[in-house]
Amino acid sequence: xxxxxxxxxxxxxxxxxxxxxxxxxxxxxxxxxxxxxxxxxxxxxxxxxxxxxxxxxxxxxxxxxxxxxxxxxxxxxxxxxxxxxxxxxxxxxxxxxxxxxxxxxxxxxxxxxxxxxxxxxxxxxxxxxxxxxxxxxxxxxxxxxxxxxxxxxxxxxxxxxxxxxxxxxxxxxxxxxxxxxxxxxxxxxxxxxxxxxxxxxxxxxxxxxxxxxxxxxxxxxxxxxxxxxxxxxxxxxxxxxxxxxxxxxxxxxxxxxxxxxxxxxxxxxxxxxxxxxxxxxxxxxxxxxxxxxxxxxxxxxxxxxxxxxxxxxxxxxxxxxxxxxxxxxxxxxxxxxxxxxxxxxxxxxxxxxxxxxxxxxxxxxxxxxxxxxxxxxxxxxxxxxxxxxxxxxxxxxxx
Length: 399
Ligand code: ADP
What we know:
single chain, alpha/beta, 6-stranded mixed sheet, 15 helices, 14 strands, 38% helix, 20% strand, binds adenosine-5'-diphosphate
C-alpha cells in the first residue's frame, strides 16, 4: 500500500509518500512560507526541485501542489492519485481523549478541535492539513497519529503536577509528553537491533534536536518523560528554556512589566542555547564557538550535558535500572560532542561509550556505541517519524 504522510505546521507542510510493502520512501516534499509568498522543495529518486518560489496561499494550496507534483509527467511517480491507499497525519496534541491513532471522520475532527486550547500553535495548522487533504482525497481513509498517545501509559504520579488538583480537573493541566512518535519508533528499532524483547528491557531514549526530550521506556511502555503540559518543559533547547523555577516567571513579569504573551515568547523563543549564549540557537554553532573559547557557548555545553545526565540518572532510578541508552534526532544522531559530553562520568551506571567509534561512526544507520566492557548498550538510532506514522496508519486500517 502507498501511504502519504502529512506533517502540517503553521507556515510549512512536509509530506512523504511511502511504499509500505517495501518500507520504502518514494518521494518527499516541503511547502514553506505558506501565506507569505511560498517556497517548494521536492525529491523523488534523482529528481530534485530545490526551494522553488511558488504561490502557496493556504494549506489547501500546499496539498494541491503536493498531489500535482506526485502525478506530474516528469517529476511524479504516480500515474493516478488514487494509487494512494491512505493518508497518515501527524497531530501534536491528542489531549486525554485520543490515546491511539484514529481514522478521521467529520465527528472525529470536531472532537480533535477541542484540544486546540492545549496546543494553540501546533494543532490548528495540522487540522487545516487534515481538512484540506480530506477535501482533495475524499475517497481514502485519513488517519490521525498523535505525538502524545505514546504517553498514555505514564502513571498518575508522573503526570499529575503538584498544584491544586482542581486545575487538572478543570483545565486538564497535566504532563502529556511530546515526541512520542519518535521515541516509540527508536525504542522499537533499538530492541530489534540488539535482538532483545522490548517487553523485558529498560530504555532511556534521548531525542535531541531543536526541540529535545528524554523518555523512560520500561518493558515497552513509557513511564516518564521530560516534556510536560507543553513542549517547553524539561531540557534546555535551541530557543526554549526547559524547566526553570516557576517563580522566575512571575518575578520577571512583575519586574519587567511583561504580558503573558511576551513572557511566553521569552521562554519559547529567546531562551535555551540562544538565550544563554546570547547568539547561537544551533548546536553546531555552539560547538564551533566553544572550540574558539567563547565562554557562554562553553557554558551552554556544560548546562545541557549536566541536564541530560540528571535525567538519565533520574530515569534509571525511576525504572530500577537501565539496559539501553538511545541518542536520536539532529543533535543525537550527528553530534559526537554531545554524546561524549552527555555520557561522560556515567560509568557508575554501566554507561561507557567507545570514544573512537563515537567520532568516526557512519551516519544514517543504527550504531552500537557501547564500549566492550559497558553494562548498558548505548545506541544511535536514526529516527523516522514519517515511517512510524505510515506504519500506524496501515495497522489501524488493517485492524
Ligand atoms: P527539529 O527539532 O527542528 O526537528 P532536528 O532534529 O533537525 O530539529 O535537529 C536540529 C539540531 O541538530 C540543530 O541544533 C543542529 O545544529 C543539530 N545538527 C544537525 N546536524 C548536525 C551535525 N552534523 N552536527 C552537530 N549537530 C547537528
